[in-house]
Write a structure and sequence with these properties.
- There is one protein chain.
- With 511 residues, the protein is of the alpha/beta class.
- It is 32% helix and 20% strand.
- The protein is built from 16 helices and 18 strands.
- β11 and β12 form a beta hairpin.
- α4 runs parallel beside α6 and α8 runs parallel beside α9.
- The longest helix is centred in the middle third of the chain and has 17 residues.
- Bound molecules: ligand TNX.
């Protein structure tokens, strides 16, 4: 009896609410969705709002928990979650139902009216991406802006490229797992789906390899500038992988070889391919180290490293580096990449390497990461490989914004926001078209990056633009439109306490 009364009262509360006009097409969504239709009214978020999910779906439950805690910021009490068998008539409903082929694995549909917000996707990843759109759609409205609204209408959305990455160099300066998780959270809010960790370089080896323990105890003991460095145990690395997975982000680990291996050869001098004795290195030069590419011992090392790494990596990719091997003879370099490719294959992973690997016997099962040379990218495509785009003049997050930027480098370019945004993947390199492109990735090299504040400053807001280039339809990419939408994210970024670069090219709205 009481239950009926409560339910009748609830209905009255809901139906007593007067519709409040709002315009979904005015909401600044980034990345801009494929299709959006506004219907002029709104859904009101308040303490009576509930999140509904289908029963027996732990994955959706986990997402609903995240959504409820994020939305509860706007309401007095915590938004409750209830399991239902059919679609509810009111509230926020997360529904997983297969069959929307066009939406693929990451796409979603959002249907909002005065009574209900329904988020639909084929897979949990799609619900997660759609949740980011939903969270960006929450606005203040009504009299004195006292109400929290989600403008009504519909969104149908799915990504252009399946790989939209951020790379973090944890070798030049080491960052612990809490820092990495924090960056994962920020990137996930803009639908980034890959975190590439550059785990090894001349200055430090950052991942525990149990069969070669000195890699970390010796090779991980310092960093640029001489700080104490550090490394991830395999358990910690798995924790990062798991955390990223909950945000539907895949981790791509990189072991950079045969160059950029000073830290490894200090730990194990028998692997050294130069005549010089290696010492721990805390400077920022590149291109001076190499492995002994003609020794069998080296391939035992590569095999052990890839085997252990493959076992703790969820995703299909292992990145083997391959850049700037300036002291490796060309034929030795090609020999090394060819052998390493076989080892990656043996452990059932797909090899990614920087664009120089196009000189080796690569094929359609490999990925070339374009950073420097058009001809390498083209050579890779001609051999059938897919290309991951990280053009240094556009996507290198370690480049300064202007000549006064207090950190960062300038060798590739000085990259203000407009330059980082205003390019198209499919017209970047002649002959490389959409079908050759796996996606785009923005690398943050950390020679000059020492703190999380430094990371945030160089990554944001440039990564937000790259996230849009990777996700949105080419026909919707427009700098003048983007900068206005981005300006509307100023307040959000400030609330999230992100130390972002307040580019003068953007009309920031901080209130
Ligand atoms: C070049 S990009 C490198 C890195 C440096 C970076 C600094 C690439 C594949 N190699 O080793 O950290 O420049 O911007």
């Amino acid at each position: 009896m009481t239950a009926i009364i409560v339910s009748v009262l609830m209905q009255m509360v809901v139906s007593c609410q007067k519709p409040v006009p709002a315009d979904l097409s005015k909401v600044s969504l980034i990345p801009v969705p494929v299709e959006l239709k506004a219907s002029g009214s709104s859904f009101q978020l308040n303490e009576n709002t509930e999140v509904f999910i289908p029963s027996e779906s732990p994955e959706v439950k986990a997402l609903a928990n995240v959504l409820s805690s994020q939305l509860s910021k706007y309401t007095q009490g915590k938004i409750t979650i209830s399991e239902v068998d059919g679609a509810p008539v009111r509230g926020i409903y997360l529904s997983l139902r297969a069959g929307h082929k066009q939406l693929g694995t990451e796409g979603y549909q959002l249907l909002i009216d005065e009574k209900k917000v329904e988020l639909r996707a084929n897979e949990a990843a799609g619900l997660f991406r759609g949740m980011q759109t939903l969270l960006q759609s929450v606005i203040k409205g009504g009299e004195n802006n006292a109400l929290t609204l989600i403008p009504s209408g519909s969104v149908t959305d799915y990504p252009r490229y399946g790989y939209r990455g951020l790379m973090l160099d944890v070798s030049r300066h080491f960052f612990g797992i809490d820092d990495v998780k924090h960056i994962i959270d920020l990137a996930a809010a803009y639908k980034i789906n890959v975190l590439h960790l550059h785990l090894t370089d001349d200055q430090g080896w950052r991942i525990e390899i149990q069969s070669w323990p000195k890699l970390t105890t010796v090779g991980g003991s310092t960093q640029v500038g001489g700080g104490e460095g550090g490394f991830y145990t395999q358990e910690q690395f798995k924790e990062i992988v798991q955390y990223a997975k909950e945000k539907h982000i895949m981790v791509v680990p990189e072991i950079d070889m045969p160059g950029h291996t000073n830290a490894a050869v200090v730990a194990y001098p028998e692997l050294n391919g130069t005549k010089k004795k290696a010492e721990l290195y805390t400077g920022t030069k590149v291109g001076f180290s190499t492995l002994a590419t003609r020794k069998e011992k080296t391939y035992q090392f590569v095999d052990d490293v890839i085997r252990e790494l493959a076992a703790i990596t969820d995703g299909p990719y292992i990145h083997i580096g391959g850049d700037e091997s300036h002291v490796t003879k060309d034929k030795d370099y090609v020999y090394f990449i060819n052998r390493t490719k076989e080892i990656v294959k043996k452990y059932n992973k797909t090899m990614i390497g920087w664009d120089e690997i196009a000189h080796a016997n690569i094929d359609e099962s490999d990925v070339v990461q374009y950073w420097a040379k058009d001809e390498n990218a083209t050579m890779g495509v001609n051999k059938g490989a897919k290309v991951l785009l990280s053009p240094s003049k556009r996507t290198y997050l370690d480049m300064k914004y202007d000549s006064t930027t207090h950190i960062g480098l300038t060798w590739a370019a000085i990259i203000e926001l407009e330059d980082s945004y205003n390019w198209k993947p499919e017209t970047l390199v002649e002959g490389i078209n959409e079908e050759h492109i796996l996606g785009i990735e923005s690398p943050l090299w950390t020679e000059t990056v020492e703190t999380v504040d430094d990371i945030e400053y160089l990554v944001f807001p440039r990564l937000i633009g790259h996230a849009e280039i990777g996700w949105s339809l080419a026909s919707k990419l427009d700098w003048n439109d983007f900068k206005v939408r981005l300006g509307q994210h100023g307040k959000r970024l400030t609330e999230l306490d992100v130390n972002f670069y307040q580019s003068k090219q953007v009309p920031w709205v901080m209130e």
